[in-house]
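Many introductory courses stop at the sequence. We go one step further.
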Amino acid sequence: MQVGFASVQTQLISLACSENDFEYAKRMGNALLQSGREKQHWPTMSRALQALATIARQQQEENGERSYLEQALAIIPETESLPRSNMLRSLGGVAARLTDYSAARDYYAQSLVICQESGDLAHEAWTYHGLADVAHREGDETEAIVWERRALRLFELCGEMWSMTGSLHAVARLTLDSIGKTEQTAFLWNAYERLAQESDHPISPEQREELDVAFAALETALGSQAFDSVRKRCAGMRWREIVQSVYSDQNPIV
């Protein structure tokens, strides 16, 4: 009953946030937190604190968001590996946005240990994705690509097409930033487009625009003949071959 009540309350909080009624959302979040405390029910308290963290983030109060998430982490039992791993990963993202990169890496490292011990490949992949974001923010594109390729490999093992597409997109962007407009970069952008087409999620107008801009720049840099050759090579490969070629140690990007 408590879990169902908490679910309804968090949905109402989300609705209030979507209408920018943050004061009402905060009151509901604090009321839910108090209810969880009275019943000594950590999942309800955790859900309330996460809702309050989301409100803080939407109001661009990232220090407040971090504080709520730290409180949530503190009440999750050590035996609850998945909730703890997810909370640590959320904290890693907040710390990275606050440029506290040392803390971000520490949060992600703790999350990674839990994922590896529990054999949770999907969440391990998302942790690598977070580490790639930290490295990118620190200006180390080479390290970021290493982490993102690890994420891509695990997403492929899990069969998560949407996640693979996002990870490949990140590798393409990072490679363009790090080594510039090369045939290798052109292959990655074509691979991203191909995987996006294979997935159940259609390419959005924003993604299409980004692809078109990248393709135009790469074709100008490489020449039409070389660029078309890359497109034909990618078109002749199965999507799984494309993904495996990107994360394979035999085909390093940098």
